[in-house]
Amino acid sequence: MSGGESANDTGGVKEMEATHDTRTTEKGHDLDVAAGRGNAELARLLPHPAADANKYTRGHLSLVAGSAAYPGAACLAAAAGERAGAGYTEVFCAGKSMITVRGWRPSLVVRDWRAWKPAKAPAPRPGHPTACVIGCGFDAAETSLTSLLMETVRGWEAPLLIDGGALALLANATGLRLARERAAAGRATLLTPHGGEAARLARGAREALEEAKAAAARGTRGPLEGLADTLSAAGRATLAEASPAPATLARALAEAYGAVVALKGPVTFIASPDGTAEIMNRGTSALAKAGTGDVLAGMIGALLAQGLDPRDAAALGCALHAEAGRTAAAALTDICVAAEDLITYLPDAIRAIES
Ligand SMILES: NC(=O)C1=CN([C@@H]2O[C@H](COP(=O)(O)OP(=O)(O)OC[C@H]3O[C@@H](n4cnc5c(N)ncnc54)[C@H](OP(=O)(O)O)[C@@H]3O)[C@@H](O)[C@H]2O)[C@@H](O)CC1
Ligand SMILES: Nc1ncnc2c1ncn2[C@@H]1O[C@H](COP(=O)(O)OP(=O)(O)O)[C@@H](O)[C@H]1O
């Protein structure tokens, strides 16, 4: 830990007093939690390119995003991913969205998402990090996207970030089982729900628990056998609650899905399957505008694609996103900031964290 910071564990939530301006102290329903990681610790994670870097060694980000209804989400996530340092950003989107995404930024490599073959992707190679972000601009009403998602959860080996409409498609017994199988195989997954998406994920986990219980009562063995026994009593109780506190919800979802969970909101909680959690409270209500979550997914995805561990990628990505929002609001007012501005102000956020 860097100088000026102190940390201790209280109920699994990492409490830190950082040297940066902490502004707010969040009082969770069950815990008092202070600010997240300090600038010095975050700055050490910044993926500056090596002198001999090339676009492939810097990190390959595959973004499966942008249904015909929401091409903008793919544009925002992809531009944010490039700005956050990915060396090669490839967008797999709906055929009807391709022209929009190509026209938005010529540096993006744009393909039809029928060409997305996650199980056939080359195995990750040392020195050539890669990651996938799936779900920004997924139309959850388009159930045909379920197979695209499930195939990716099952077949994609490298780190996987699931966001937006894909979270609704994951929120059921099959999604939970496949996510847990990924975790058991040592494959990293990161979920980035807002409050509504987190509630859906909790419902999906409850559905899986009920299915597992019913199978046990019938005496049948199934893929979810023993699920209830592998979840902590606190986790099960949280999933059963109508409106749990966000810190405990993030932890219960991380445990259930075997994934790092960044539960977004005015304060963001980043929880890991091992029960640890940290808080990111640098944000501003200027961020409460459509598309800012897509930008965040692209930023974190790019950090994963540059080899950061999911917890570090989430902590750094959320902090950079929040700092970009604050710098943008200082220049443009908290009324005028839009999602695109976060991409423009990301360099200032990087400088703020390094200074
Ligand atoms: N430019 C583009 O192309 C854009 C495309 N986008 C894409 O659109 C897709 C759908 O995503 P979405 O977030 O708009 O809708 P959805 O998942 O139905 O969630 C909304 C429901 O959840 C609830 N809710 C509860 N807490 C909440 C919270 N903290 N924050 C927000 N909502 C919260 C809320 O309940 P309410 O507050 O109304 O009671 C409401 O009923 C997705 O793929 C995304 O990537 C967007 O990113 C925008 C820019
Ligand atoms: N009042 C607020 N204060 C601070 N940050 C906020 C606030 N409201 C939203 N945010 C941040 O803005 C982003 C919104 O993400 P999300 O709801 O997924 O948006 P979208 O789906 O439109 O892209 C998250 O990073 C969230 O933490």
TrEMBL record:
The keyword Lyase applies. It comes from Adlercreutzia hattorii. Belongs to the NnrD/CARKD family. Its EC number is 4.2.1.136. GO terms for biological process: metabolite repair; nicotinamide nucleotide metabolic process. It is an enzyme of class 4 (lyase). Homotetramer. This is ADP-dependent (S)-NAD(P)H-hydrate dehydratase. PANTHER family: ATP-DEPENDENT (S)-NAD(P)H-HYDRATE DEHYDRATASE, ATP-DEPENDENT (S)-NAD(P)H-HYDRATE DEHYDRATASE FAMILY MEMBER. Keywords: ATP-binding, Lyase, NAD, NADP, Nucleotide-binding. GO terms for molecular function: ADP-dependent NAD(P)H-hydrate dehydratase activity; ATP binding; NAD(P)HX epimerase activity. The lineage of its organism: Bacteria, Bacillati, Actinomycetota, Coriobacteriia, Eggerthellales.
